[in-house]
Amino acid sequence: MKVIDWDGHTQVRLQLWDIAGQERARGLNRVYFKGSSGAFVVYDVTNESTLDGALNWKHELDCQEILKNGHPIPVVLLANKCDETKMCRRNVSLLEKLCQEKGFVGWFQTSAKKNINVDNAAKFLVKQILQNTEEPMKEEEQSIQINLQQQSKTNSTCC
């Protein structure tokens, strides 16, 4: 659990689960996914097979967690272990293509070991989550609110 101050008057509480892609955790994915507003899916750039596993996790997230507006929750792909810049530069076009095809809201090359881009990825995901929770007021709700305000002004006995 991590609580961060977002903009001086908004606190965001993050609950992070690290299940390390373990197959035995797949049976509990509904528990992990339930009520999620966003997610990171991480793969290891030094082990290409982990990318397939990450794409499977993304697919399961899309099938099981839907926002009120009917869209999938925002998911950010993290290409972890980017300690070797040569290896990470090679993957840029692949990551951009995958994000478009698979519906990731973005991707970051990260290094958990050296704390590279971890905070930037978290801020990006929180921004995506907040954009989805700030639903604009419907026209009829605005109309009712305006009418109520006008009515209260005309019925006012004050000043």
Automatic annotation (TrEMBL):
This protein's source sits in the domain of life called Eukaryota
Q: Which UniProt keywords apply?
A: GTP-binding, Nucleotide-binding
Organism per entry: Cirrhinus molitorella (mud carp)
What's the protein called, per UniProt? Ras-related protein Rab
- In which family does this protein belong, per the annotation? Belongs to the small GTPase superfamily. Rab family.
Q: Name one GO molecular function term.
A: GTPase activity
Does Nucleotide-binding show up as a keyword for this record?
A: yes
Record-level GO cellular component terms: late endosome; lysosome; phagocytic vesicle
Q: Name one Pfam family in it.
A: Ras
Q: Name one GO biological process term.
A: endosome to lysosome transport
